Amino acid sequence: MWRALRRRAYRAMEVRDPDDRLGHVLNLALVALILVNVLAVILETVPSLGHRYAAWFQALEVVSVAVFTFEYLGRAWWAVEDPRYAHPLWGRLRYLLSPLALIDLIAILPFYLAQVFGMDLRLLRLLRLLRILKLSRYSPAVTVLADVMRDERDSLLVTFMVLITILVLASAGIYLFENEAQPEAFGSIPAAMWWAVATLTTVGYGDVTPITPAGKVFAALVTLTGIGMVSLPAGIVASGFTEALRQRREEYAEQVDEALADGRVVAAERARLDALREELGLSEREAARIERRARRQWARSRA
């Protein structure tokens, strides 16, 4: 009985079967609770609301932590239904160290830390905002972005190393040109790094600016360099994101072609396609467009 219950819970919470009404309702309820928690943390910082509705905010916190704790323990319990975590002990430990499980732990940890150690409540209240990270479990787009960051980590690492090198050189250069004229702003290379960061990112707060002719020329060169360099990580991620979406569309199209091998999609095939669409993060409209194209190609091949 317990094994059947565990398997049912796993299917409802992890498999994301579009026809599983229970799983759909439970996941929507958890998403709503996460959003309500984030909104409560934001509103609680408003002094008038924080004092007037303190009891309500506290009650929401207790209920939310209870739900999130139950969810965290439950996911550890039924994790063994996933082939990746099949071992009853080591599989669960490996799951608890996975990124999504760590995010679930972060969502409840501030509450228990406050109860046990009496830490700074202001900090712990703000840490509750990290619960918004739990939405990554329910957003395929976030999953795609995480996959892209992992796949492009080597390129991103090289880019960030180049950016750090330019940051150090820019800080050293502006220190050389502006130290004597503005010792309070450019008294050291570490102090000059604030200006270098603001200039390289083209934010330009204007609180610290060069005043010597050589410093202004150097600052112009740093700004032009920053325009090109800062856009590199964004370009790498955007390119990888586009490629990941293309691969997912192709994967879905391949499955549609297999389902249409006999010219029609039966109920079991439709269920598999719907589940794959959810897993890949494709919209119903996009999936329908892929299927229409596949049907036209199948019809032409039979003509």
Describe this structure in words.
By secondary structure, this protein is mainly alpha-helical. It folds into two domains: 137 residues, Four Helix Bundle (Hemerythrin (Met), subunit A), CATH 1.20.120.350; 149 residues, Helix Hairpins (Orthogonal Bundle), CATH 1.10.287. Helix content is 77%, strand content 0%. It contains 13 helices and no strands. Helix 2 runs antiparallel to helix 4, helix 9 runs antiparallel to helix 11 and helix 11 packs antiparallel against helix 12. The longest helix has 47 residues. It is extended, with a radius of gyration of 26 Å. The model has no long low-confidence stretch (mean pLDDT 83).
Question: Can you count the helices?
Answer: 13
Low-pLDDT segments, ≥5 res = none
The radius of gyration is 26 Å
Helical percent range? over 70%
Counting DSSP E segments of at least 2 residues, the number of strands comes to 0
Supply the helix-strand structural class: mainly alpha
Largest sheet: none
Alpha carbon gap, first and last residue:
54 Å
CATH topology of the largest domain: Helix Hairpins
Number of separate structural domains: 2
* CATH architectural arrangement of the largest domain: Orthogonal Bundle
* Shape, per Cα inertia axes: extended
Encode the helix/strand succession as letters: HHHHHHHHHHHHH
Mean pLDDT: 83
CATH classification, class level of the largest domain: Mainly Alpha
Strand content: under 5%
SSE inventory with pairings:
Elements: H1 2-15, H2 21-44, H3 47-52, H4 54-78, H5 90-96, H6 99-117, H7 121-127, H8 140-151, H9 153-178, H10 189-200, H11 213-259, H12 267-280, H13 284-302
